[in-house]
């Protein structure tokens, strides 16, 4: 056998002391291990020629979906059986057959895997055909998997049966693996590249037939549809069935759809590109736990998407909240394709979660996914003895059902998590608005305190100066009204009732975050899934001939999984309802905070205006006082070295000494008032610091 296959485990290195070459080399240029392939010892001359031909073909190919050949390292560059070795890229994830045989895939690959396989293998085959090479032995064993930067890449290997069309336009040799040969190869007729389109399917009686199975009676049945159950959405199922009908046509001339005369490309590849280019949004309706798949039109808007969702679900566009995985709402200003991540085309990788904003109480859990007919048959009578061959199919569907129940819960839990993240975003916005409100309230209180202190002092000083004959009842009344208005502003700045509601809501949200139901609760279902898989694995190796068994253990697992899902979904929807209730409280609080903040700003502006008006009136009062003094006619009088100015008409009526004393007292008091006013004005902090 080969020293090492491209998809197998790396061999242990041999000791250099024994003179043998190392079996596994990691080249610095290749940055990875090499797979070394050698001929079998019993190869005849024809097969040796085929082997050398494979090496020649491999060395000239360079495509990410075809295993790349490299020069054999010098320490391994020797002949085995008179033929050279073949050094290839080592792919560590095994082949497609291994993946298909995995119990998790007993009813087909996931949608993301199907589309990835279609893209990679289709691209590799297109490359080979463009280079005029027919593979002729394409099967799951000849497709290997490699992990490149966290992404699984499929690569075509084993070109031992490949035919280079440059050697002749017609091919007539009978080569390949019997189970996967195209019909024309059995007839020994000339064939073309369309033999690669046949792939791994059998002869179909009708051009529309893409699936065949054998009944227990031995009768072979055909269908134009993919078998159920599977993991594909309805949109992909429809286009894949059409594509498979094209690829599995019995007529080699019609198979693949022929060549487009305008582009020169096979129509099957054009259709494949259309399938891979579909932008499909998968919407999980959290009110019904059902998935809605919609193919997006080019540049379709979010509003258009919501209208289509409304027609399918009955949830009005105005009540829809579409959340992405991280709890972010779809932006209505962007196209609907924002919810389709580049490179991810399936609902097992990307989902949009639909919530009904008119509801805060969700009534789940909902009815579990329906059982297939054959699984329902053993559930009704778990002790019935059935042939092992038949049980393999039934138990495969049972495993698929158990896995499906777990995945249904996982998707709903992810929807709950998106709701929690959305709630936290709303809560962050609430906290920001609350902080703005508290800050504005504190500034208002500080300004009101300063305003009350200053107006009290102004009223006191105003009363003192009234004895000198300067007063204004109108101004005094206005100041009194300012005091009353300031008291009303104090009431506006009182936000205690809102603050209490916000604190209580924050506490409730923290409790929801700490709740065990905020974390995944599917451990029991995962254990049951593993039990179902192990049970299926033990059944597969059993000889199918004349062997029977019941399904008691498998039915127990199904029943326990249904019960477990029912319990976790009850808790999930109860927790989800609490999340949505808190979110609604935030939605109700936000406009109240906005109103309170606007009122505080209005009160702040009022206080600023009242303070400015009063300051202008004080300076106007001072101006009047100065004008009165300037209006007096000065009369210079000398008395004890002190001079003063007095009105002339006072001299004839009041004794001079008394008049002088009164005037000096008046001037002294008024000067004191003016000096104090100037001193207060100079020592008063600028008002603008409170803005």
UniProtKB/TrEMBL annotation:
Query: Where found, per UniProt?
Result: Cytoplasm; Nucleus
- Tell me where in this chain the Protein kinase domain is found: 1-328
Can the keyword Transcription be found in this entry's annotation?
A: no
Q: What class of enzyme is it?
A: transferase
The GO annotation for biological process reads:
positive regulation of transcription by RNA polymerase II; tumor necrosis factor-mediated signaling pathway
Catalytic reaction equation(s):
L-seryl-[I-kappa-B protein] + ATP = O-phospho-L-seryl-[I-kappa-B protein] + ADP + H(+)
Q: Which GO terms describe its cellular component?
A: IkappaB kinase complex; nucleus
Listed EC numbers: 2.7.11.10
Molecular function via GO? ATP binding; IkappaB kinase activity
Q: What is this protein identified as?
A: Inhibitor of nuclear factor kappa-B kinase subunit alpha
Organism (species): Varanus komodoensis (Komodo dragon)
